[in-house]
Every structure is written in C-alpha cells, then in structure tokens.
Design goal:
The structure holds 3 protein chains of 3 kinds. Chain A is mainly alpha-helical. Chain A has helices spanning 2-16, 26-43, 49-64, 71-88, 90-96, 107-116, 120-156, 159-176, 181-194, 221-244, 263-285, 290-305, 317-333, 335-341, 347-358, 386-413, 424-442, 446-464, 470-492, 504-529, and strands spanning 375-376, 382-383. In chain A, a hairpin with a 5-residue loop joins β1 (375-376) and β2. Classes of the chains: A mainly alpha, B alpha/beta, C mainly alpha.
Chain lengths: 530, 312, 206
C-alpha cells in the first residue's frame, strides 16, 4: 500500500515538474489546448476525434521532439482531443440534426426534436453533463481495473499465452466490427503482413523491401495510419461530394435556445447517467466494439426501462442522457486493454499507443504495473518502474482533461453552433495537404508521404468494399509484438512445432478464436437467407 | 595502436587552421544519423552538427535514418554524391561487421572521415552475484544456467567465443540495443550482459560489476580489470562512433571536414566533447585518414575469419 | 448530410462477385509470397541454426505463418460466396469503374502537385538566377535559404489543395485559391518558421 501511494505521488507530481525539478505547466497547458481542439473538432461535421489525433500526433512530435520529456505534453494534448471530441459532437447533432462525430448519431434522435421544441439549451447542457459524468465514471473504472488486470495477466500469461491473446483479440475485433467479419480478419492479417517490411532484431538484413533501401527501417507507422485512416476517409468524402454535387449548405437557422438546465434536473438524471456510463464502460473495455454500439445499447435499454417509451425519438431528454453518457464512457474504458495488455481496441487508443511508441522509451503492457521498490542511487538515478510513474501521470492528465471538459466545455458548448458553417468541400482538401505534409515531416521524407498515399488507396478499397479498417490498423500495429512473442515462444519450446498448444490457457484462447471464426462463417451464410 | 590520439589530431588542426580552409560546401550539408531520434547517438550527432555550423558557418542539417545500427542509412548513403554534402553518422561495426550479412553493403563503398568517440565494451554481471572475474563466471556455470544478453550478431558471436574458451554453456538472449541488455540484466532475465558504455551509472552505483574489458585496453571504469586478450581470448569488440561519406570523396574535402571535427573535439569548452566525456569516457577518440580506413578494412577481415571459425 | 461512422461500417450493400475476387486475390497473394517474394527478399529462411547450434526461427518464420493463416479465411470467403450463388456470401461493397476513374483523377492531382513541389524550387532558383537576384549553382545549394527552400512546397501545397477543391466542387473560385495559398503559408510558418530542423518537402530528399 505504501509503495502504491509513493508511485501515485510520483506520478501526479511528474506531470507538473520538469526534468530539473522545477515547476512545469506545459503538460497541463497542452491538455487544455487538446480539450479545446477536441471540442471544436467534435462539433465540426466531417471531423472526428481520431481524425484530429492522427494529424496532431506528427505535428506535436515535430514541436516537442522524441525525448522522454516530450511524452506528457504530446499525450496530454491527444487525451484532451480524445475527451473533448466526445463532448463536442453533440452540439450540431442537437441543433442541426447533423452529428459532429459518428458516435453522436443517436443524439440526433432525441436531441434535434428537443431543439425544435425550443429546448436546445437544455438538451446541450444535458449532453454536456451526461458526457462529462460518464467520462469520469469510466476513468475511475480504468484507474482501478487496468492495474488489477495487468497484475493478474502478468502472473498468469507467458509467451505462448500472450501470443494467443493477441490472436483472440483480433478475431474478436473482426467479429464485432462491421458486417463482414471474414474480410475484416483477412484485413487484420494484411495489416500485420505489411508491417513485416524492414529489419528485425536478427541482423540478417532487411526483408521484403523490394530492393528499396529506404524501406529498410520499416514502413513509417504514423504516416501509414494517417493514410489508411484519414486520407482514405477524405478521398471517400471528396468523391461523394463530387458525385452528389453537394456544396456547402447555406446559412442554417439556429433554433431558439430556450431555458437552462437546473441543478435539480441534473441530480435526477444521475441514476440514468450511471446506467448509461456502466454500459459504455463495459462495451469500451472490449476491443473493437466502440462508441456507436455503446450508444445504441444504452438508448435501447433506457427506452425499455422507461415508463414512457413512446417519448423516445420525439424529444425525450432521457434519450440524450442515455446516448451521451454511454458514448463518452467508452473513451476511458478503451484504455483498459491498452494499458494492461498493450492491445488497442479503437482508433483513439491506437494514437495513444503510437505516441507512446514514438516518443521516449516507455511502452504499454503488463510490465507497466510492476511495483518495483524505489531505490535511489547517488549520481545515477532512482531505480524504479518509470512506466508505472508514467501510467499514473497519464491518469493525472486524464483527470485534468475532465476538469477542463467540465469548465471550458460548458462555456464553449454554447458557442459551437457556428462551426456548422465551415464548408466541408474546402476544409477536406486543406486537411489532405496538411496530412501529407505532416507525414513527410514526421517520417523524414517521401518515404512517409508516399506510404501515406499508398495506404490511403488501401483504405479507400477497404472502405468501398465494406471491410472494416480497425482490424487492419490494429494488426499493423501489433504485428511486431506478436512476431517477437511467437519467435520467443518457439525458441523457448526448443523448436516444438506445437509450441502454441503447450499451455491450457493458450489452447482455450485459440479454441475461442476458432469458434469465433466458425460463427463468422455461419453468420455470412445466415445473412443471405434473411 | 591504430588510433591517433587526440594530441596528433590537435596538431593537424593547428596546422590547417580555419583561415586556410580550402573547401566550402555549396549549400547545406546533410548529416544522416543512422539511429532514431532521441537516443544518445542522435544527441551526439545533433550537437556536433550545431558546433560545425558555429565553427565554419556551414549549414549542417541533421536527419534521422534509423534501422539496424546504421546499415539502413548506409545503404542509402553509398549512392549519394561524394561531394561532402551528404555525411553519415554511425558506428564502426556498421562498416567492419554488418556488410558480412548484407548483399548491398561493402566496406569499400565508403569514405571514412573521422571517429568521434569510443565504446567501453565490457562483460557485466550483477554485483549481488558475487562474481568478480571471468573465472567466477566459469565456476558459477557449473551450478546454474548462464543467460548472456546481447544486442546483435557480432556481440552474440563474441559471447559464444568467450563461453567456448571458458568451456561453459551459454544461452544467448537477443535484446534491443545496449539499454535492452542492461534491462535484461537488472531485471534478472539474464545473468551476464554486454555493455557498450551505458552501464557507467549502474557500475558507479555498485549495482553492476565489470568482469572483463572487451576493448584493446582496460575500460575507464575498471582500470585494473584485464582485457579478454590479456586472458588469452583473442577478441576485441570495441567500436567507435564514425562520420562517413560515399566512396570516392576528394581528399581535401575529407581532410577539411575531418579537421573541423577534430577542432571541436579537442576544445574542452565544446558541448560535443563534454557530452562524449560524460557518455563515452574518458575522452573523444579521433582517428582519421588512411589509419581509419586501414582500421576498418583490417577489422572487417578479422571479423570475417572470426565468424568463419565459429561456424566450423 | 448522412453521417459516415468511422468505427462501424453501417449500411454496406450486399452484392457483386467481390467476395470471390477478394478471396481469389488473397490466395494469389499468398502464392506469390510463398513462391516468389519471400524466397528472394528474405535472406534468412523459415528456420535457421543459431551460433550455438539450436534451431531458431528465421526472418521468414512469422511471415510464412501469417500468409498460411490467410488461406483458410480466403477459402471460407470463396466457399461462402459460391454456395450462396450470385450476389451472395458475406456482405460486401463494390468498387465501380467510376470509383477507379476517381482514383485516377485523385492520383493525377496528387502526382502533379508533388511534381510541382519537387520542381517548383529549382524553377524559382532558375528564374531568380536569370533575373540576377541570386547565383546559386543548384537548388540543392539553395535548399537551406529562405524563401527558396520553401518555394517548391508553397507552389505544390497550394496546387494540391486547390486541385482537390476543384475535384470536390467541380469548380474553383478565387477565394478557394486564396484559402489554399494561405493554409500552405501557415504550414510553412509553423514548420519552417517556428520549429527548427524540420524539412518540408522536397528538402529531406535531395
């Protein structure tokens, strides 16, 4: 217990102190900036949190560099964006029936009718309140669950089990994301496949580079993710706008805002918020399912439990509460598998992992939560588990981000109606140029820029063919880890061809993966009968 | 002794002098650092770039091209113009060992300008193991499995050579870089490890001990410990940080760049020198010209025969 | 404006023979990897002997396992599609000729702008040399001097944004050009002005 408190104190103070021990407010400032950017981005239709994180990461790295001291400012800003965006998305959904982010789609169902009835302000304030409480709730769960899970995992899982766990997560992700799980899984394998290009630790020279020496260092991670995620989305949006000849819509009338939300009303909402937040947290902790599912599930549950289910869809404030508390609660919980296992479950988590891998020498995974005794050595350094200090620092910044969301968020939410006027048909092309520049700058040349372009085309085809991109990105990110684990467990087994089937836990996980696969196949045949 | 030590380099520098500079670059010089941003090599390269700028007024732009200890960078460097405006920064191992496993690298592909700093290669163990010498390691191997952490084929081969001449069995553990091997040692995944220089603070703190030097002379932290060669094991794993260029670079350019770097490294006020003194003690190592080329080529030959002997 | 969820791909139409194409394509890729690409481009094999004589995985170990895993998945995809007959199997979208044509447009626009980005700098240097404003021997020599070092990026970046605005709107207004130029200038201000040691395109590839 003592050591836990010691690490907690170190973690909290590490956010506020520079390497030389002086007061340092940069991380806090970056969290605040991140939250503001996140709220603005969330409220702008056509932009989403992961979108902004993808572009912000290379820019932040160019500003702060790669040293360990860059980690907090960069992560702080990304966390801020992640949290701000879930709050901001509700505003255009309520006022103009246009969700600012995909996860606010269900907010339109009840929010827009409310705004039409002249209760826009109440709806927005409800969305904000439910969002922030939901977010806080899920962060609390994260703070407790991640260390507990990590310690359990570290105790139980060896190399083969960890390999099997990654395989199982990918299968699960493919099974739950999108309507084409088989293709999703092939996409996941393809993502792993492309990440094999470059060198390994074996010193046998680079592999699969097609003779291009620039690829010897491997495909540039950030640029590739930027390409497959952001650029392909821009291409699709540009093509759709071109085909439909949609021009930026003219001025939209902002509806009458109406009365404020009272504290008594807020208090009465609490049970409903906590219910939504619990659903969101549970969903968020599983890899791949994401905010939209959480919001749908929560909205359905609220309607079924309501005494007036017919009000849902026609402007029930409970509907806004249910969706917003659930979709915001996903953002904290999705870091549980990231921090305890190193496995990201959604795009926002992907960028948190990318940042940690790019900057400094920290890494996520079960080793983070080892409570190494703290020992000070004169002239060198203190021996301790720095990953753990960083983890508590991260938690601290999440709390700061929540405070910013409370305070700045409630102020900003009222002003966001204007953002609907940003013309998407001009904004997206500019974003394309910014992304390509960021790719070039981050990854030292045309290697970055051209990889981003190539991955944009891959992403375009995947999207057009209805194949989910998430397994592809996660496979791409996890392949080096999985390769290390597989090679390690093969060597450790003494070259046994059945090296993955030596432990009962690994066998169970692999059997589960195969069961998921069979289900996917059955599902694909069932869908055609329907 | 192939290294010209600092004093010689200093006299070269004094003879040339900044006013007599014969060569000036036509536009910026690009210094390709063969390691990722943020590491020790990167810091050394960037500090050096800054000081060259200050000294000569040349514009030096550092760029990171990471991968396999500088080999990825070198594969790109060899096709550039040898006009002194594209330079590489890596370690001698990149040129005197790595080409062996590579189809597209050869030690003849490069001009070797100057070394900057040297390693402190040593065999390390945890202090609590109670081992003081290689003989203690040999004795311990009778009772427990020895796991030796390394970061690449060359040092793994070195570990195998030491093990064979001690007559013990060793499991090799491949880690990522010098930090990786230290982590493996401290966290008890390994009980012996190679250290190239990053071990300094841990050795000073008494956490780790040096069992033997793997350089041609004793390492700075343990001046009394014998080298492997002293103990009858013909192995030198020491390496230096090195500035290179594509093959065929005119001598006057090579000498001019070499002399400006020597000037910086000899200056006790210089940030690069101070960094090297702290990180790669005791002082910068400056070898240039034909001596350096000779050193790389002969070490390459020695390494080739070492690997051949091991494979048999 | 219909929302396009990022995390779930809702509303995918079922149809076409794309499942067959994708399954078949995956099998072809696997065959190419196993028989052509891997043998030529991975120097250490599936398994190799370590210095101590143990068998350890080579660099081809994991790639081979990975592509072998694709085989059953691709077969399931094909079997599913064949059993269902025309237009069946797992839900799948389609890539039409129009889509490919759009991709062609997009790559022409991108490629053109990148060429301008690469050649714009040398062009500006040539013009300025011709006018007697400078005497650089090459763009490379000028690539550390403002404004020559960012001139190519400015031209190319502006062109890139403007081309895409044109593709999106099917026409280009004066203010679209202005927005493109200003946003590119802002990028220059951030990356070249406020930050050190950042190389804007094409300066890291000279």
């Amino acid at each position: 217990m003592d050591i836990l408190l010691q690490y907690l104190a170190l973690g909290i103070s590490s956010v506020f102190t520079a390497a030389d021990g002086s007061l340092w407010l940069m991380p806090v400032a970056m969290v605040l900036i991140g939250v503001v950017i996140g709220i603005l981005v969330g409220a702008t239709p056509g932009l989403s949190g992961p979108f902004a994180m993808a572009i912000a990461l290379p820019v932040l790295v160019s500003i702060f560099g790669y040293g360990n001291e860059a980690l907090y400012p960069v992560l702080g800003c990304l966390l801020g964006i992640m949290k701000g965006a879930t709050v901001g998305g509700a505003v255009p959904a309520i006022l103009f029936n246009t969700p600012g982010t995909p996860d606010a789609f269900l907010t339109t169902v009840d929010g827009y009718p409310l705004a039409q009835k002249g209760q826009g302000r109440r709806a927005i304030q409800t969305a904000h309140f439910a969002s922030v409480v939901g977010d806080n709730f899920s962060d609390l769960v994260l703070f407790i669950a991640a260390p507990v899970l990590a310690v359990a995992v570290e105790r139980v899982l060896g190399l083969p089990e960890k390999s099997a766990l990654i395989i199982l997560s990918l299968c699960f992700m493919a099974a739950v994301v999108g309507k084409a799980p088989l293709k999703g899984l092939i996409g996941g394998l393809l993502g792993m496949f492309v990440s094999l290009v470059g060198t390994t630790m074996s010193w046998d020279g680079p592999r699969m580079t097609l003779g291009i020496p620039e690829l010897g260092g491997g495909l540039p991670l950030t640029s590739c993710v930027l390409g497959v995620l952001v650029l392909s989305e821009v291409l699709i949006a540009v093509e759709d706008m071109r085909k439909d000849r949609i021009h930026a819509s003219g001025p939209v009338q902002t509806p009458e805002m109406g009365p404020k939300l009272s504290w008594v009303e807020r208090w009465r909402m609490m049970p409903a918020i906590l219910r939504g937040a619990s659903i969101g947290t549970m969903i968020g902790a599983l890899p791949g399912i994401g905010t939209t599912t959480a919001a749908t599930l929560s909205h359905d549950t609220a309607r079924r439990r309501s005494k007036t289910p017919e009000a849902f869809g026609n402007g029930a404030i409970e509907g806004v509460v249910a969706t917003e508390s659930a979709n915001s609660a996903v953002s904290g919980a999705n870091l549980i598998p990231v921090m305890s296992l190193g496995i990201p479950g959604n795009f926002a988590a992907v960028f948190i992992i990318l940042a940690v891998e790019t900057i400094g020498d920290f890494a996520f995974g079960p080793q983070v939560f080892r409570f190494t005794p703290i020992k000070e050595i004169e002239g060198f350094d203190t021996i301790m588990n720095r990953d753990l200090v960083m983890a508590f620092g991260l938690f601290t910044m999440m709390v700061i981000a929540n405070i910013c969301n409370w305070s700045v968020g409630s102020f900003l939410m009222g002003q966001l109606g204007r953002l609907i006027h940003i013309p998407k048909d001009v904004m997206l092309p500019v974003i394309l140029t910014v992304s390509l520049t960021a790719a070039y700058v981050q990854d030292g040349g045309y290697v970055g820029l051209l990889s981003a372009c190539a991955f944009a085309v891959i992403g375009y085809f995947l999207r057009r063919l209805g194949v989910s991109i998430l397994p592809f990105v996660i496979g791409f990110l996890l392949a080096p880890t999985l390769e290390g684990l597989i090679r390690g467990s093969f060597t450790a087994s003494g070259g046994d061809p059945l090296f993955l089937l030596k432990s009962p836990i690994a066998v169970v996980m692999l059997a589960l993966s195969i069961w998921l696969l069979v289900r996917m196949f059955r599902q694909s045949r069932a869908s055609l009968k329907a | 002794m192939k290294r010209i030590l600092l004093m010689t380099a200093a006299s070269v520098m004094l003879a040339a002098g900044p006013a007599l500079a014969e060569w000036n670059p036509d536009g910026p010089i690009r210094l390709w650092i063969g390691y990722g941003a943020g590491g020790g090599t990167d810091v050394q390269g960037r500090t050096l770039a800054k000081e060259i700028e200050a000294k000569r007024g040349w514009q030096v732009i550092p760029e990171n091209k990471a991968g396999d200890d500088g080999t990825v960078m070198s594969a790109q460097l060899k096709t550039e113009e040898p006009d002194g405006q594209t330079l590489g920064f890596a370690i001698t191992t990149t040129y005197d060992f790595a080409p062996m496993n590579s189809d597209n690298l050869s030690p003849e592909d490069f001009t070797y300008i100057t070394t900057t700093a040297g390693s402190q290669m040593a065999v390390l163990a945890r202090a609590e193991s109670g081992w003081k010498t290689l003989d203690d390691l040999k004795a311990a191997a009778a009772n427990e499995q020895i796991v030796w952490a390394n970061w690449g084929t060359q040092v793994e081969a070195g570990a195998e050579i030491v093990a064979r001449s001690l007559g013990i069995d060793v499991n090799h553990l491949r880690m990522k870089g010098g930090r990786g091997t230290l982590n493996a040692l401290v966290s008890m995944d390994a009980n012996v490890a190679w250290g190239g220089g990053v071990q300094k603070p841990l050795v000073e703190a008494g956490e780790l001990v040096i069992l033997s030097s793997a350089e041609t002379g004793p390492v700075a932290l343990a001046p009394d410990m014998p080298t492997l060669m002293d103990q009858g094991i013909d192995l030198n794993l020491g390496y230096q940080y090195i500035i290179t260029a594509p093959a065929g670079m005119p001598d006057e350019i090579r000498e001019e760049i070499g002399s400006v770097i020597a000037e910086i490294l000899v200056d006790p006020e210089s940030e690069t020198r101070q960094f090297i003194e702290k990180q790669y003690p005791p002082a910068p190592i400056v070898t240039q010209g034909d001596d350096l080329r000779e050193q790389i080529l002969s070490t390459y030959e020695a390494n080739v025969s070492m690997m051949k002997a091991l494979a048999e | 404006m219909k929302p396009r969820p990022v995390e779930t791909d809702a509303g995918v139409p079922s149809g076409g023979r794309w499942n067959l194409w994708l399954g078949g394509g995956t099998l072809v890729l696997v065959a190419l990897c196993l028989f052509v690409w891997f043998p030529r481009d991975i120097s250490s094999g599936f398994l190799k002997k370590s210095l101590t004589g143990n068998t350890i995985p080579g660099d081809a170990f994991f790639p081979v396992l990975l592509v072998m895993l694709m085989v059953p998945l691709a077969l399931l995809l094909i079997v599913g599609a064949l059993r269902a007959g025309q237009g069946g199997g797992e839900a799948v979208g389609r890539v039409s000729l129009q889509n490919l044509l759009f991709l062609l447009y997009a790559s022409l626009a991108t490629g053109g702008a990148l060429v301008l980005m690469a050649l714009g700098g040398p062009l500006v240097v040539w013009v300025s040399n011709g006018m007697g404003l400078s005497d650089f021997t090459s763009y490379r020599a000028a690539s550390g001097t403002f404004p020559y070092n960012v001139s190519g990026f400015f031209l190319g970046g502006t062109a890139l944004s403007a081309c895409y605005i044109y593709i999106t709107r099917r026409r280009l207004r004066g203010r679209d050009l202005l927005v493109s130029a200003l946003s590119t200038a802002l990028l220059i201000l951030i990356f070249a002005g406020l930050l050190d040691n950042i190389q804007l395109p094409p300066n890291a590839d000279l």
